[in-house]
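Researcher: I'm preparing a figure for a lab meeting and need a structural model of a single chain. I don't have an experimental structure, so a prediction will have to do for now. The sequence is pasted below. Please return the structure as C-alpha cells so I can convert it later.
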Amino acid sequence: MKTLINGNWVSRSVEDKTIDGSFKRHETAFRNWITRDGSAGPSGKGGFKAESKRYHLYVSLACPWAHRTLIIRLLKGLSEHVGVSIVHPLMKENGWELVNDYPSTTGDPILGKSAIYEIYVKANPFVTSRASVPVLWDKKHDTIVSNESAEIIRMFNSAFDKVTGNTDDYYPIALRSKIDLINTDIYNDVNNGVYKTGFSSTQNAYAKSVRALFSQLDKLDELLSKQRYLLGGVITEADWRLFPTLVRFDCVYVGHFKCNLRRLADYPNLWAYTRDLYQVPGISETVDFDHIKTHYYSSHEMINPFGIVPEGPIIDFNKPHNRDKI
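Model: Understood. Here is the structure written out cell by cell.
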C-alpha cells in the first residue's frame, strides 16, 4: 500500500499498526465545512457556501465511510445538487482509481484524474495523508473541502436546506448529546471495530477487538428489542452511521475479517433492523455487493493472498422486517 508524504506517492510502512499489533486509524487531512452562508464551520476555514452544483463527491461503493455520505446525500435530496464520481472497487498500487471500465464506475469528469491521490495533490501539492474516500471537492476554489465522512454528513444534513427545500433533520438538537454518545461507542467498537479485528497482527489484539465488537453488538441487539431505531422511534444520523457496517457484516466481515463469533443473521433484532433500513426508499440503490466483495477480498492481499471472492452468502435484505410493530 502507498500513501502521500509531502505530495509524493510512496510505499508506506505499517504506520497503521501499533507496537501491540492493534490497528490504528489516522486522522483525516482536510476539515473545512460547507455552511449556509459560507462562514467558517467548527474546523478549517470559511468560504464554502452551500450552492447547487458547486461541490462534487468522490466515493467508493465498497467503503462504509463513503457509503454514509451517499445515504445522507440521497435522503436530503442532494442528488441533483452534488455530483458523484465512483472509483474502481480494487485498491492496489495506485490506491483508489478513477476509471470507467468496471460496472458503476464513472472515471473523473470533473478533474480528469486517474486516481484519488492525484486529487489530494491538486488540493495541496505538499500534502501528507492517506488518499482515502470520501472526498468532497469544491469546483469554485479548486480544492478539497473535507475528507472526513462524519463531518460531510453533518454538512449534507443542514447546510443545503435552503437550496433543496428538504428540512429533514438527522441530527436534531434535542437528540444531539445522545447521538454523539452512541456514535462514539459504535465507532470505536463496531464501525472501526471490524477493521481493528480484521487488521490485527497479534492474537491478543485480535481477541481484544473481536470481543469488544460482539459485546457492543449484543448491547445493540438488546436495545433494538425495545425500540425501532437507536434513539427510539425516529431515524437519526446514528442509524445511518451503523447501517453501512451491518449491511457488509455477513458478506465480508464474518469471513474476511474473522468477525465470526456470530453472524448478523444470528441477532434477531439487529438483523431485522438492518432490513428495515435497507428497505427505506432509495437506500438499496446505494448498496453494491459486487463492489463490496470485490474490494475487500481482492484488495487485501495480506489477508486473502489469492484474491478469491466467495460466491456467498445468499442474503435476503428484502425479507419482511416487522419493525413497524415495535
